[in-house]
Amino acid sequence: MWHDAYPAKDYEALKGFVPQIKASVEAINGAKLPGILRDTEAEWESRLDELNIAAQNYYNAVNSNDNDALLLAAEKLHSVYERMSRVIRPVLKEIDDYHQTLYIIYHKLYPDGKFDEIAGLTGDLVTKAEAIMNYPRERLQKRLGDQITRFDAAAKQLLDATISLKVALNGGDPKKKNEAVESMHTAYKDPDAVFH
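The structure assignment produced for this chain is given below.
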């Protein structure tokens, strides 16, 4: 839904996800947090309420045949689901900070080919990628243990892809710009995945 249908504005595909979304939301509503996550229960319940509201708004948008409302509802559903997953699988604040800028680039500017606006955000994005790379080693070791080497490689790849994006956007080749955005977006998934 989010990575294919939403950016392509494939309204029929978005409408077709309703049965899957309903089944998934029903399963999440029936899930019980394990005892080790008891201290997150209040936040989980709050996010669950938001998820149910976002899902209902999605269904309403599908039924209204309002494509703009459907795009907004898909964005909200995705955002609420991501925040919900962070309750039980928190990542580094630095990764979330990077994602805030990545989100604007990949889901707002890139689909409309606004490369000049993306270029204006790349300095900030490089700084955020460096912050991920420079996260204190001892704190990483406590959280990741043996996975720290995997994180290091993923963080380096993200920084390299972010710098490459900045370089590509200063050039004039549209194909290289597209490839650099996609490469940076793909590279983001790896450091994030280490925490899941």
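Interim note for the steering committee: The chain has ten helices and no strands. The two ends are 21 Å apart (CA to CA).
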